[in-house]
Amino acid sequence: MFAYIIRRLAYAIPILIGVNILTFALFFVVNTPDDMARMQLGAKRVTPEAIEKWKLEHGYDRPLLFNSEAAGIERIASTIFFEKSVKLFALDFGNADDGRSIGHEIRTRMWASLALAIPVFLVGLAVHVTFALILAFFRGSYLDFWGVVVCVAMMSISSLFYIIGGQYLVSKLLALVPISGYAAGMDAWKFVILPVVIGVIHNIGSSTRWYRTVFLEEIFKDYVRTARAKGLSERVIMFRHVLKNGMIPILTGVVVVIPSLFLGSLVTESFFGIPGLGTYTIEAINSQDFGVVRSMVFLGSVLYIVGLIATDISYTLVDPRVRFD
Questions:
Q1: CA distance to 59, 76, 230, 277, per residue, from 112 (Å)
Q2: How many Å apart are CA 56 and CA 64, to the nearest integer?
Q3: In this predicted model, what pLDDT tens digit does every residue of 178-236 receive, in sequence order?
Q4: CA–CA separation, 278 and 267 (whole Å)
Q5: How many other C-beta atoms can be found within 10 angstroms of the C-beta atom of residue 101?
Q6: Where does 102-318 sit in CATH, by number?
Q7: What is the pTM of this model?
């Protein structure tokens, strides 16, 4: 197992390098440092002197990839790519175009994202697995049929409908919770409870159908037939055997999602005014802040790779038959 983890980490290095280079290339295909300066200065007509001053202050006055005027290693080190992208491998995120530390913003904002994402993940997992197990238990009945119909209907509705509808009904008409905003500490629950409920409801359709499929596949396996032949009740079979074995693919699927909890939800945080990493990324995209965008893309890639490795490890823990040499 240890050797397998080392190999996976070694494979991750070229992947991260490729993501870093691709992000850098795509960003500068859309924008040049001059374009970034004009946008940040907030004027349609700015003097060349002002543009050069902004580029000098933010480190965009150097060549992109190769500095022919420098000597030795400085030809590579004294470039925008090295200063803005290579240092990410040392988790040095640098500063945003507004001068604020990106690392400090990530450490500050991640708690708001986690306060929203963790309850959605845990409550959603419990609710979706429960609903799926009920549908599988009553398979072939009217409850199962109409349950699948409702799931398909919910999958067909945009998440924006749930967000806007929830804000209008719960916050505006009933005035039960604030419509948007965020407060740190114990008061945070008032601002995250509605996004959490909406997040759970929005994913009921897709998650329940997937988990139901997993449980139905387990129901028709030989060990279930053997359990029925031994006289075990359907309830015992479902909750003691099918649920246990069905959680193997479910667990490996949800572990991949765990790293994304750190990065927050772009749409939900934006609509509810939660100052998490999702909102931070949206604001950076709107202002074309390359420093923040490439930091969030790189961080997301790292977390996704960690999630894949954790998925493989969790699979070996829940299924002893799987071993990695």
A1: 31, 38, 51, 8
A2: 14
A3: 888 888 777 788 888 999 999 899 889 988 999 999 888 888 888 888 888 888 888 88
A4: 8
A5: 13
A6: 1.10.3720.10
A7: 0.78
